[in-house]
Amino acid sequence: MSYNKNKRKQPQKEEKFPIGLLLPIIAFLAIIPLITMMHDYDTNLGQFEWFTSYASMTDFFLYFKMFWIILTSVYLIFCLIYIFFAEEKNPIWAKQLIPIAIYCGISLISAIASKYSYFSFHGIFEQFESVWVLLSYGLMVYYSFYIMQNELALKRAMNWFLIGIAIMSFIGLTQVFRHDLFRTTFGQKLITPSSYSGGPLEFSFELGRPYMTLYNPNYVGFYVALTIPVVLTILMAVKKIWIRIASAFLLAALLLILFASQSRAGILALLVSLFLMFLCMRKVFIKNWKIGLGGIIVILAAFFLVNSMNDNVLLNRLQGMFTTTEEYYPLKEIATNDDDVTVTYQTAERNKETNGKITKDDKLVIKMLQDDNGSDYFDLKDGNGKKLGLILGEDGVTNTIDDPRFSTFSIAVNRDDSFQGFVLTIDGYAWYLSNLMNKDGQKGYYCRGGAGAMMKLAKITDSVSYLDKHYKLANMRGYIWDRTIPLLKKYFFLGSGPDTFIIAFPNNDLVGMYNSGHLNEIITKPHCMYLQVGVQTGVISLIALLVFFGWYLIDSLIIFWRCHYSEYMTFIGVGIFGSVIGYLILSLTNDSCVALSPIFYTLIGIGLGINYKIRKEMTYVFDKPVAEAAPSEQPEQQTDTNKKEKNKQKNKK
Prior knowledge:
This protein is α+β, with helices and mostly antiparallel strands. Helix content is 51%, strand content 11%. Strand 10 (409-415) and strand 11 (420-426) form a beta hairpin. The relative contact order is 0.14.
């Protein structure tokens, strides 16, 4: 089967869309990702016991991106009204847009129905991807689908996209070479309001590891995977030498930034997307093998340059990505009950003896009591009710438990201005527990978490057996996935509400966080876009989104596998196809974010528009390479027949 051009006899000249109508697309692709500005705000999360009492936070990378996404979408709506009513152009619709429309509709219903609808409509701590942002993504998919079927408009938008990539790359390179723009006095003035009177800003990212304007180095891999395929195809599509040279420099810069970010998933996603693009464009690459070979050399040179600059970190991280060993954690649970604290602890040796079964012999029940004189003492028993003795240490405060099952435990009363209760030390880590610091109406024992937050600890009853033994899988994502996957059943239909994952997740599971290395953290995202969607807006919305992505990918593969790549739009179309593949692969280990999702949804909308136009202008044939020849030949055959009849009539005369 193949595709062939079906040109009209009198092709209509494409309309040149004014910059005002292209502005929403330019903003999503090139401007909004660059926005970085200080914003102080109240998280409104103080109502949850697992959240620190320090509710005032500062954001640089997310809040104002959310604000401008929503504002741009409002402008976009006016653009559509102008096009449809002032210019009286007909709307265009395609079946492939139905799933994204369903996703947006369910997201809105989810936000309205959510118990935490305030956060769904206003955005939340470290995310700011409210339902208005999700609806904006859907609007942009349709708008870019509608506008970008025009090649002149596409070229103008891509030129602006290149400018945005160039600015982003400049910022990234300053960070790669340890001269971070945002650590300079000038750079800090750019991202702080004129009223700011504080000292120099502090950064949590190490020197030499780029984060650009994307909030986290992990998102650098996302950005590069989205941009390199498009830049590569622009380089091949354009004829102007200065654009080709600029594109080549951008490719080299983006590769350096990617490798310096140490994003293993980003490197692998880019390799997969470029490989699939190569298969689709195999004839183009074979014809231009010298350029392809030069590109491979540049990629390898950039990789080993960055690897040597960072003490072999890239090779080590890539190797570690594919190695995982089964883990065992003796501490199973700390239950903060109304009357006592129950600790479940089983050593690896006992685990073998019991074939993995937890028994009452593995439980320690603790009560902190006061005698008639007001002195504190402990009542300790095992799960069978057997009383356990204590041995007072040399300091006169700390007690060890006189039982080999709990030989790594120690316990001590702690009464000072900051804490009233006792400290239970297990395997060298101190757990602060108390029934003396309850708020009004509360009773029982509580555990102190990060920044002094007192909470009831979670009782985990559902998990994934494999992930239970591989918490450190995928750079410690295994634990987060293990606690997130069971939430899909709870939030199957409408989810917990857009932007509410932090609330749905058991952030009071301090034992799990301790075992997995996340202690004193607040889990704000699942590090998987698909789990994020499934929990926040429901599994049904996730299915709709997956259908939307899958439909686009299958349609694109069919089109670009047989494309001749003779026009600008076909090159950009396959580049966007590669970008979407890379983004969706990275979404397995990363979340949707206002820093990058605007680019992704704009590109996939443009890709849909390109595919739609190609399908209109090209004919799909299963067996023969010629498609539209027959209809065009019929008038010629009729003309020849008429000539013969006329000649016969002349002869008769």
